[in-house]
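call fold target=5'-deoxynucleotidase
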Amino acid sequence: MATPPVSPFYAHLSRLRFIKRWGLMRNAIEEDVAQHSWEVAVLAHALALIARDVLGKPIDPNAVAVRALFHDATEAITGDLPTPVKYSPAMRQATAHLEEQVGHEMLKLLPPALQPGVQSAMDHAQWPEAEAVLVKAADNLSAWLKCRAELRYGNREFEQAAQQIERKLRDHMLPEVRYFLDTFGPAYDLTLDSLMRGE
């Protein structure tokens, strides 16, 4: 087998750890896009497990987790665009177009044999609707948990964001999210000692 040409694709992804989220706000706890992507993947996997094993829906938790891992992959090039930038419909459309174009360019950095497999994870348009809904819910859940953590540290900068995201979760409440919040949500407010004691 011939040695393939050098590809910078995964080196780009590794730089997600240098891209800060919530850039327009004062943060008590810094968060980067790599950390966020990992948390969204874990939460999406949990929601998919709940969907399959509690609610009896035909869904693959592993596929959902992989898509969640790559849901912000284009931010390796674009950086994290703050939410206020995306408020207007025109800006949302422009942002979506930019992310789509960047995604296509990033895929071209891969050896041709690997492009289809990564594209199915990165290209939101290829995601089955049921999986896309869970990834989006996990993304919102991750943002809400971040806001809650900031508020616990006394950072009122995140009050409005917490209210907006909570309203978004409530207005589009999935049974998977309700189950997660009821079963796992209260533990997020515990200290390490309380967690270790199983309180």
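return ok
Residues 41 and 95 are 22 Å apart (CA to CA). The chain has a mean pLDDT of 92.
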